[in-house]
# Entry
Amino acid sequence: MAGYDNTHSRLVAWLKVVLPLIALAILSTLFLVSQRTDPQRAIPYSDVEVAAILREQRIDKPDYAGVTSDGSAITMAADSARPDTADSVTASALRLRLETPDGGVLSVESGRGQIDTLGGRADMSDGVRIVTSTGYIIETKSLSAALNAADVESGGEITARGPMGQLVAGQMQLRADTSEENTRRYVLVFQAGVHLIYTPHPTQGGGQ
# Structure
């Protein structure tokens, strides 16, 4: 009986470590693909790092790439991520890049992100900065982006610098514009009280 008890205790202790890691690995394949590393060049984790990863059930340097239902290419990456529930993940230093079918590019950086894998959205916060291929640099406190379509909107007020000058608006949204027949293009819409300080471009050649 003593041998059985010792074996049983060791098995239970081992499963307490292994089962959460297996669950984390299965969950990670649903929404994130860990960064590939060359085993010949990889630097081994220290004992402290391994202990932290086991304790926090954290994935380091995750990334994700896919195509949305409207044909937009979306990629996400973070410094680290950890599951909160079966359908929710918290990421630090979350970065998102959206390339729309009409050639537009939206790059977003944030200090923190919450990914809803069931609802298909990423909520970004803690210093959100957006750079667009049309020349806008936008800052806001929070941003929500769909993971299955080109649909991005700020959670509140934004400040922006762009080709027309500086502006402040109560909200910003990236959405599809289908006003022209058989044409789909994606536009940035500033709304809810827009204040623009227009900066005219100097004329070429320095005309007198």
In short: Helices lie at 2-31, 47-56. Residues 29-37 have pLDDT under 50 and may be disordered. The chain has one domain: 2-34+45-198.
